[in-house]
Amino acid sequence: VFKPLASDFFGYENLLSEPEKAALVALRAYLESDVRPIANGCWDRAEFPMQIVKPLAALGAYSFGWEETRPFENSAVFRGFVALEMARVDASVATFVGVQNGLAAGTISVCGSAEQRAEWLPRIASGEVIGAFGLTEPLSGSDAAQGLTTTATRDGDSWTLNGAKRWIGNATFSDITIIWAKDTADNQVKGFLVSRGTPGFTTTKIEGKISLRAVQNADIVLENVVVPERMRLQNANSFKDTARVLRLTRAEVSWAAVGNAIGAYDAAVAYAKSREQFGKPIGGHQLVQDLLVKSLGNITASLGMVVRVSQLLDEGTQRDEHSALTKAYTTSRMRETVAWCRELFGGNGVTLEYNVARHFADAEAIYSYEGTQEMNTLIVGRTITGQAAFV
Ligand code: FAD
Fold first, then answer.
1. Ligand 1 centroid – CA 374 distance (Å)
2. Which of 95, 143, 199, 336 is deepest in the core (most CB within 10 A)?
3. Handedness of CA 249, 253, 255, 256 (dihedral sign)
4. DSSP three-state, residue 22
5. CB-CB neighbours of 159 under 10 Å
6. pLDDT for 12-51, tens place per residue?
7. Model-level pTM?
8. Would you state the pLDDT for residue 285?
9. Residue 227 backbone phi and psi in degrees, to 5
10. Closest ligand 1 atom, CA of 211?
11. Mean pLDDT for the chain?
12. From CA 100, how far away is CA 169, in angstroms rounded?
């Protein structure tokens, strides 16, 4: 039975259709029973729980968005709530799915030929194939378009890739990794599907993260990696096509940011009602109520924004600056919110056990990936003023 979240104060979930609500109920039940109990342990050990890959596939996590695989017609608002629901429980799991479904399947859907979509999307949807998305490099992150130095050189029916990538999520175990590289003939950025085991392709796990610790991020080296032409994404002809993917995924990351904030807020509400100081629950003190109300205000405003940006996608009018503003705004509000919620726990807020510290720490990576706050601000600033201020 569908029960709206108390933290969805204005009832945005009422926008969902009955099949969408039913799918969300099933996902929520699985996350509570199988993911929540292991989330802190996986985070602490920096391990990804591989056992959840197939059950999440069965729940539709990698298939809802794509015509080739969706189990029923659904809205972008629904797919946003799916991301929110996952991040509410564990932002590492939401990030894994964001890479598998948003960045990997999304790129193939947006930039692949009909044959490539038919070949890969069903295999990603079933969890048989795990994907990764390699754009960032050791020396280029925000400057991914101009600063990208990985090269692709065509020789007849194949391409040779050389370069390095950094931070690539899922890439320590992915079956295919999308590598963005500059064509040495026309200097345009193109996308290639590189299979694990291809000679010259190596991945090394990045250790010691303080955020999204269960996500496996990799440094990648590409040394004379040969990829056949049929593994080049046929509709990725320049960085403009990469940006089409990022527009979609930035909106989805914004939903995950709201989910991560809600995870911290829900824990804080429960704690405010149970922890007593000065002879009553701390939730009865005015300053504690202030932290909760400011948090709920941030969450409610952010929900309004992500709902609308997803409706724009369904209406066919979503632009890059829409998702850039949404990403910059919602992740900033999330960062404030998780800090207020952590504060409400006093000392207990710095241990994993109380289920707020993980949300607090995970906010940092969400704030910086898929375009930092500054980059998304500059995208919107360019729209407002007509002047690009990147360089
Ligand atoms: P830099 O670009 O070096 O920026 C450093 C600082 O300078 C930032 O504050 C930035 O905003 C600021 N800055 C830079 N230029 C300007 C300017 N012109 N004006 C004002 N400020 C500026 N990438 C992938 O390709 N695939 C992935 O799967 C992936 N997963 C990730 C997972 C995690 C956990 C993390 C942390 C990162 C991941 N990334 C991934 C990389 C991520 O997208 C980059 O970290 C991000 O784009 C920022 O790039 P950077 O780290 O190189 O920072």
1. 10
2. 95
3. positive
4. helix
5. 23
6. 999 999 999 999 999 999 999 999 999 999 999 999 999 9
7. 0.98
8. 98
9. -125, 130
10. 34
11. 98
12. 9
The residue whose two tokens read 């995870």 is 263
Residues 6+ apart with CB under 8 A from 40: 352, 353, 355, 358
Q: How far is CA 95 from CA 79, 125, 319, in A?
A: 14, 16, 23
Q: Please answer whether residues 86 and 212 qualify as being in contact, where contact means their C-beta atoms are separated by less than 8 angstroms.
A: no
9 in contact with ligand 1, CB cutoff 6 A: no
15 token code pair: 């926008």
What phi, psi does 186 have (nearest 5°)? Answer: -115, 0
Do 339 and 317 contact (CB within 8 A), yes or no? no
Is the Cβ–Cβ distance between 302 and 335 less than 8 Å?
no
Ligand 1 pocket test target in 222, 368, 378, 380 with most atoms within 8 Å of CB:
368
What's the rounded Cα separation, in Å, for the pair 305 and 325?
Answer: 9
The answer for residues whose C-beta is within 8 angstroms of residue 294's C-beta and 6 or more apart is 336, 337, 340
Residue 343's Cβ-count burial label (10 Å; 0-12, 13-18, 19+) is: middle
Mind listing the pLDDT tens digit for each residue in 329-354? 999 999 999 999 999 999 999 999 99
Give yes or no for residue 142 CB within 6 A of ligand 1: yes
